[in-house]
Amino acid sequence: MKPIIAISMGDFNGIGPEVVLKYLSQTDLNKSTPLILGSQSVFDVYQNKYQTNLTIRRISKSNDVQPGKINLLEVDSVAETDVQPGQITKKGGQAAMRAVEYGINSCMAGTTHALVTAPISKEAIHKAGYSYPGHTEFLAEKTNTERYMMILASGGLRVGLLTGHIPLKIVSKSISVDLILQKLVILNHSLMNNFGIEQPKIAMLGLNPHAGDGGVLGDEEDKLIKPALIEAKARNIEVDGPFPADGFFGSQKQNQYDAILATYHDQGLIPFKSLSFGKGVNFTAGLPIIRTSPDHGTAYDIAGENRANSDSFQAAYTLAVEMARNKFKEVSQHAT
After folding, report:
1. Rounded to whole angstroms, how far apart are CA atoms 11 and 92?
2. CB–CB of 283/117 below 8 Å?
3. Would you tell me which of 152, 180, 233, 313 could form a disulfide with 228, CB atoms 3.0–4.6 Å apart?
4. What is the pTM of this model?
5. Residue range of the domain that includes 231
């Protein structure tokens, strides 16, 4: 089957529409069918601005998608005057989130097979009345998912996060043996089922400098992480650690593992973004749907200037297609 990939346009005042247009101008429509969720006027503005000649077929409902074509479904009415590149606006946040919600619903209904989300602005969605720290938490709520995690992927480099969008000052208070075990189970399952790795090897990073240095620099490693790793191994999860985060990446140990579990956001994302060379993908594991996104933000500072690089969006779209195909195979195998 050729998967139908829903694309939420993101904040139209950021670089979302630009990277979508740039990637779709070169994508192979024989391998998947893209369905943009957004506004025709937004893409008209950017096509005229960049003098692109992409044919986008407007449809009125998601089951009118035509294979081999770039389809667009209007999910929010946006006037051309609303498009203000580089500006943080209530309308930009509202349209972005309505597109995401439609994408979630279409994937849950089975009319699309994966969702790729272009970047949103947390400030803009808050202006529009959405009190979420990001895509991940919104996706979890709308799919009634309690256990989920963020995974950043680029080729063989995959970094999962134990804690996500929370202040650094409450990270240590948020960590428990149960949470570590829960995230390791989700990560292991995702590596097998989404990424197609039969026997995953996982590395766990320590929370403190030098992984606590025997308790001198913190005791979370001894009291929380090590007991969780022992229990994970008892559940046939192959995991090593806790490793000091700086030495782990400095000695290239990430190449020996299928994934790394970082304890907090920046511990995982700083080395990941340094090593992925702008081609990273954000994947939300644990959801009943497939969702990927580029690993960058709205980049308001260059919005509307035709300077955005579409490599990360391309990687996100490609991974979504690959995961949708893996799911087709899984369903087919169970049916036989």
Report:
1. 5
2. no
3. 180
4. 0.91
5. 149-282
Going through 23-109 in order, the beta strands assigned E by DSSP cover 33-38, 56-59, 70-74
233/113 same-domain check: no
Please, how many CA atoms are within 13 Å of residue 90, restricted to the half-sphere of its CB?
3
Ranges assigned E (strand) in 118-237: 149-154, 157-161, 201-205
Q: Of 265, 282, 299, which residue sits at a domain end?
A: 282
pLDDT band at residue 331 under the 50/70/90 scheme: low
Do 166 and 92 share a structural domain?
Answer: no
How far apart CA 224 and CA 215 sit, in angstroms, is 12
CA 6 to mean position of chain CA atoms: 14
Residues 250 and 297 reside in one and the same domain: no
CATH of the domain at 221: 3.40.718.10
The Cα–Cα gap between 273 and 280 comes to: 7
Residue 332 has pLDDT above 70, yes or no: no
Q: How far apart are CA 203 and CA 176, in angstroms?
A: 18
- Rounded Cα distance between 260 and 156, Å, is 11
d(CA 121, CA 128): 11
34 and 107 assigned to the same domain? yes
Give me the amino acid identity at 299: A
120 and 158 part of one domain: no
Contact between residue 84 and residue 70 where contact means Cβ atoms under 8 Å apart: no
